[in-house]
Sequence to fold (615 residues):
Amino acid sequence: MSNKTERLEALQEIEVNRKKTSELFRDLAKILAPPPKLKVSEWADRYRKLSQESSAEPGQWRTDRAPYQREIMDSVNDPDVENVVVMSSAQVGKSEILNNIIGYFIDHDPYPMLLLQPTLDLAQAYSKDRIAPMIRDTPVLSEKIGDARSRDGDNTLLHKKFPGGHITIVGANSPSGLASRPIRVVLADEVDRFPVSAGSEGDPLSLAHKRTKTFWNRKKVSVSTPTVKDLSRIEAEYEDSTMEQWCVSCPSCGYFQPYEWKNIRFEPVGMECADCKEHHTEYEWKSRPGEWIARKESKKRGFHLNALASPWETWENIIDEFKDAKKKGVELLRTWTNTTLGETWEDKSGEQDIDSLINRRERYSAEIPDGVLILTAGVDVQDDRLEIEVVGWGLGEVSWGITYQTFYGDPGQLEIWNKLDDFLLKEWAYEDGSKIMLSAACIDSGGHFTQEVYQFCKPREHRRVFAIKGVGGDKAYINKAGRNNRERAALFPIGVNAGKALITARLQLKFETEPGYCHFPINEERNYDESYFIGLTSEKRKLRYVKGQPIIEWVKKSSVRNEPFDLRNYATAALRIANPQMDVLAKRRETGSSMSQVQKPIQRKRRRRVVSKGL
Fold:
């Protein structure tokens, strides 16, 4: 009996040891086995946490919240795809798509990465506001990237190391950040805002892509809201791709189609099917199945998205923003087109119809019409004369040409500048007898009389008489003034291309109720004759390429004078520099107050006459 018991106990012990050995091997297999093969969207659904300060919906990431994101993220996992392009509006989650790709490669498939932002400042802000919270709140990432406050140097603001790789965040305007070490994954954000060249090194995106050459499995992801048609980098990339659109099936007929603005209906809010013409609500459309449909064959995957597909935007709000942009003018409408529809803005500034501008002239019954709230002037300095245009401005930057004058004389002598000074101090009368004065003037300093312009403007800056200098390229219209000149006069760099595009677009407006509409007088003494309108429309846009990048230039159509175009540009710049509160001025005008706040300094300090050292 005892032998039988001993044998049973021995068998039981063998079985226990076998189970322990089996469990040990299972544990070892888990430790030694490679991680499960996940796609980017699967990794995000399993591990990614959205941060409180960077998301309206913090917590666990869910790709199903915006299902159009799945295919974009997972295209990075396709071994046959090297390039991924996303041309989109704002508010569709494109930044989080980039973040998920970054998180995936840090945790699941570690390699060297490079993230490009348009500028170094934006790169620093993105690292602090987007990447740092993601690492902090996603445990699998915080385990692999050390605390930025530690002294080991592996985790800095713009360079973060992790086992198997690193990510460097750079500005496209910084050539040093685009050189040196090889990179497998290049992520480029807002590429349409990239400079044409990184210093003197050339196209920043091309420089970054060159760093991937040593990797057979390289990935290049470029995302951006687009800008101007034929100049947009992301549009050019998209048109060279599969050109995919997010399409949903019609609730009535099942026809798959993209969300298109032309099919949106305002009353009641909804979308009309492009096939069966049935009208359905936003909820009905967004609850339908969706899929990406390609329009071209290409190895480069390209995706286009607009805010109509976004779960974080309502169509009613989009329609309201469209109406508001249309009401406020062409600049806001352009921004709305780029950031809401994710489409390029087509600048239709072709040949101007001079006859229609001449025929729209009207007779003014007073020096300034009732709609004018503020006066500005632009002054051009030629070798034998000064030319000046005074422009009146109303609500919505509706403009009235007031007068165009030429003062002949030598700009190197005091007499002509004294004549200009008297003119700038003139009081202008409404029909009711009330008067206003010029609120601001811009004088071009770019000719042969730069010092004379500085000497004239410096003692008159309290009257907002400023020297300006036109700068070409893709520059902001109004830039910060500098004083790097002998007279220490304020000098405003003016983005003349931006100004000319704005004026040209406004000249095409047909209805007086439109913001930015331009009025012109027929009164002979004001000098708005045919030659003025020939000069006003004397230039056209021309596209040329510099180091492979498209550049817009404004060129004269012929040998005609272009001073009227320049002067309207300078007078518009003067308005933007003065930056008046037009609604406040309108209320004061209604209550009978003849002098606006921006004009009071002109009244208190009349003029400084000529001093011996200058003007």
